[in-house]
Amino acid sequence: MPDSLSSPSEATCAERVKARAAELGFDACGVASALTAGGAEGLDEWIRRGFCADMAWMARTASQRRDVQKVLPGARSVIVVAKNYFAPRPKAHPCGGRVSRYAWGRDYHRVMAKPLRRLARYISELQPGAQWYVSIDTGPVAERAWAERAGVGWIGKNGLAIRQGLGSWFFLGVVITTAALAVDSPAMPHCGTCQRCLEACPTRAIVEPGVIDARRCIAYHTIENRGAIPEELACRFGDWLFGCDVCQEVCPWNRSARVTTDPAFEPRPENACIDPGEVFSMDEAAFAARFAGSPIRRATLDGLKRNGRIVIGNGDRGG
After folding, report:
1. d(Cα 146, Cα 275) in Å, to the nearest integer?
2. pTM (2 d.p.)
3. Least C-beta-crowded within 10 Å: which of 33, 82, 204, 223?
4. Can 137 be counted among the known catalytic residues?
5. Which residue in 137, 239, 262, 275 is the catalytic one?
6. Nearest Cα to 190, choosing from 235, 154, 240, 234?
7. What domains can be seen in the chain, in order of their start residue?
8. Under 8 Å CB-to-CB from 246, ≥6 apart: which residues?
9. Per-residue b or e along 261-287, where b marks 16 or more CB atoms closer than 10 Å to that residue's CB
């Protein structure tokens, strides 16, 4: 019997993949074609302008981010899933340093890895022999660009993926596969003339719509930067100890965000706002134990202590 009669169509496969993604707890799923190069438009210019700061891996993997065929030869489809993590902010510690909302609960890499791999294996069941590659912002994949192409969400002026009903409070996961699936229409932008994120950024890191200069970004400095932070920027950090949510908090699309149903992302109140004094008293063992399973470990103990000194200094000066 011909394969066209015995195997599900590309449209049927896509429908089944999306249904399986929903069963696995993902809040959205879309498909884009991997047969055309792209997915990281503007990346070279962003790197050329120095906006990647010292994240050298962005330049090293630029060719792969531009073309998923260099990640998985023979790739035909890119499946993008979204996972809502929004939760209301718990009561803050009176002397606390704020933590970005995404880090209040369990590390999203750990939460999403197993279900994303299950989804990938399911694709191989639908189309036996199909190969796959998964990424949760850990591989050389332009997740947000693919989310836009797969119809999951458009890239907002704050550089983040935004989806009606979810806002920008969601994580992205990607499955690149050699399986052939029917594709979705790209997401259309709905930011309009709004400039709230550009105007609200404390350090003016959003240099133009959708373009972020990491060298000025609070999230970059408090999480990724391992060196000193320029005083002219640090004095604008306010009480942000880890990350920054300002550009999301002012976004109109986040006004009606629904609360996550995944208990893994329920806030650990002690991680939503942290007393810098507690951090100063830690050694490496205490740091590892206190933040086990949390994205906050990414900042390192030395980095968190540096951030704590900035928070205290800004409090003393009323900044």
Report:
1. 38
2. 0.93
3. 204
4. yes
5. 137
6. 154
7. 3-88+102-177 (3.40.109), 196-316 (no CATH)
8. 197, 200, 201, 202, 218
9. ebebbbbbebbbbbbbebbeebeeeeb
